[in-house]
Amino acid sequence: GEDVEQSLFLSVREGDSSVINCTYTDSSSTYLYWYKQEPGAGLQLLTYIFSNMDMKQDQRLTVLLNKKDKHLSLRIADTQTGDSAIYFCAESIDFNKFYFGSGTKLNVKP
Amino acid sequence: KAGVTQTPRYLIKTRGQQVTLSCSPISGHRSVSWYQQTPGQGLQFLFEYFSETQRNKGNFPGRFSGRQFSNSRSEMNVSTLELGDSALYLCASRAGTEFNQPQHFGDGTRLSIL
């Protein structure tokens, strides 16, 4: 349950949609999370999804979970320059162990 | 509600010294976890405390230790500092250890070892 993989970089233009992908290996994951980290700050919880759900929408954020492929994605609609940050995917195992991906750096070009 | 507070924000130490970092969780949160974040290794779990007891521990040497007080505040101690201990140390709190308790992070303590 310790392998959470993400691509390192993503670059999009302002106003476009961003899709950040994550794969995990432990099928006993209970919750999957997306965090945002801005320079000099800690991790800000964006959203999370229970492993028996397929999709969760929260304003501009849409989380899709494909449990069969162990694939999680975060879609940010109408991406803004303020969305530029590092995004971390994380899974929790048995509610008590958390594993984080290495983070995807999102660069939003004006 | 105030967020997770970590002090100090920045620290500079030399090899061989020891350091203590502090974390005050969100009011009402009883679980506190500590992570080390470095560019090369990413976010690595150090340990979690709940009700003053260590519940989980990551793969770090015994130089890394922690404790939690009755008011849920936590401290992390690193002894005999090494250059490789330079990192951002993040604290996260959550209400409990039940199923839908996400972690909330502080802004971290940036530790630099000279």
Summarize this entry quickly:
Chain A has 110 residues and is mainly β.
Explain what the structure shows.
The complex is a heterodimer of chains A (about 110) and B (about 110). The N and C termini of chain A lie far apart (about 40 Å). Chain A has strands spanning about 5, 10-15, 20-25, 30-35, 45-50, 55-60, 60-65, 70-75, 85-95, 95-100, 105-110. The mean pLDDT of chain A is about 90. Chain A is about 0% helix and about 60% strand. Chain B has about 110 residues and is mostly beta strands. Chain B has no helices and 11 strands. Chain B has strands at about 5, 10-15, 20-25, 30-40, 40-50, 55, 65-70, 75-80, 85-95, 105, 110-114. In chain B, strands 2, 4, 5, 6, 9, 10 and 11 form a 7-stranded mixed β-sheet that branches. In chain B, strand 7 (about 65-70) and strand 8 form a beta hairpin. Chain B is globular and about 40 Å long. The termini of chain B are far apart. The chains are: A mainly beta (about 110), B mainly beta (about 110).
